[in-house]
Amino acid sequence: MKLVILGGGESGTGAAILGQQKGWEVFLSDKAPLKDSYKKELTAAGIRWEEGQHTESEILSADCIIKSPGIPHKVPIIQQAKAKGIEIISEIEFASRYTNAKIIAITGSNGKTTTTSLIYHLLEQAGLSVGVGGNIGNSFAYMVAKEPKEYYVLEISSFQLDDITSFRPHIALLLNITPDHLDRYNYEFQNYIDAKFRITAYQEANDYLIYDADDPVLQEELAKRRDIKAQLLPFSLEKANTQGAYCLDEKNIHINFNQNLLEMSTKDLTIKGKHNLKNAMGATMVAKMLNIRNENIRNSLMTFQGVPHRLEFVREVEGVRYINDSKATNVN
Asked: How far is it, in rounded angstroms, from Cα 41 to Cα 37?
């Protein structure tokens, strides 16, 4: 069976390593130059690769293609592969087929990286066997191949979700949805919304979807979608709930999961702002669901330093606070 990987970055190289490990004949192709470090790793593993071109005969002889998230479906080589009936999937889909670990997946228009990093911090500080990756940091496939863990915390973009066919996180977080990357979705906001909701498409009744109950787009979509099988767990700054998380006064967080309670002061959070309060509630709910002790949760929240370039406080000068948000992809 032949596996072709289009795109030779972090995720592509990781998918190539995992594919070879699992017995696939692997060929990697990238129209751009490959980094020297990836060339060395692929060559050392005996994996064939090319750069600066896509050889059609190689690509269209594949049984399965793993497509870089950055490659649109409309490009000719993808259209040709689809016409031939070749399976086209993402790296996260491929890697998920080779692990029995519990997957915690985070998506949303804003806050993904902070929430992903915070969940990883909570689990790692509690001593769990956990890896972090996906749209940030390490390749999910590479970790499955070389650094197997019991839990994976994955930041997932809509582009990655476009190419899943069975990817099933045990816990999914859908933080918010605001217009973003619409050029990829024919400038139709609903297409982008549908892409984000794919995070729960293959979840079952014993899985969980954590979501922002204050987000109007999520409220509307959840009201009309009847096909979601996962158990819904909301977090909110506007209304209390008996199962989930809320903080009505911006002073005290209340978490309740199956009568397992946690109450804590927002003063314990090192990351500030309403947006980070929501990120923290979502992350803390995951920790409670995995039976991490309240004391450990508090200590971890007090030591988490946030993520560089994402609403990062720089300094205050003459009463003006300066914030570095250079990694943002939309105005929200």
From this structure: 6
Query: pTM for the complete prediction?
Result: 0.90
C-alpha atoms less than 13 angstroms from C-alpha of 214 in its C-beta half-sphere: 17
| pLDDT tens per residue across span 38-63 | 999 999 999 999 999 999 999 999 99
254 φ/ψ angles, rounded to the nearest 5 degrees: -120, 125
Residue 112 is a catalytic residue: yes
Stretches where the chain sits below pLDDT 50 are 309
Tokens of 297: 């949760």
State the pLDDT at residue 309.
Answer: 47
138: annotated active-site residue: no
Query: Which of 67, 110, 112, 176 is labelled catalytic?
Result: 112
Question: Which position among 2, 31, 181, 254 bears the catalytic label?
Answer: 181
Identify whether the C-beta of residue 177 lies closer than 8 Å to the C-beta of residue 199.
no
Check: CB of residue 163 under 8 Å from CB of residue 90.
Answer: yes
Q: What percent of the chain has pLDDT over 90?
A: 80
Q: Which of 67, 110, 121, 135 is catalytic?
A: 135
pLDDT of residue 260: 86
d(CA 137, CA 140): 9
Answer yes or no: 274 catalytic.
no
How far is it, in rounded angstroms, from Cα 3 to Cα 28? 8
Question: What is the pLDDT at residue 60?
Answer: 98
User: For 134, left (φ over 0), alpha (ψ -120 to 50), or beta?
Assistant: left
Backbone φ and ψ for 130, nearest 5 degrees, come out as: -140, 140
Cβ burial 242-265 (10 Å sphere, 16+ → b, else e)? eebbbbeeeeebbbbbeeeebebe
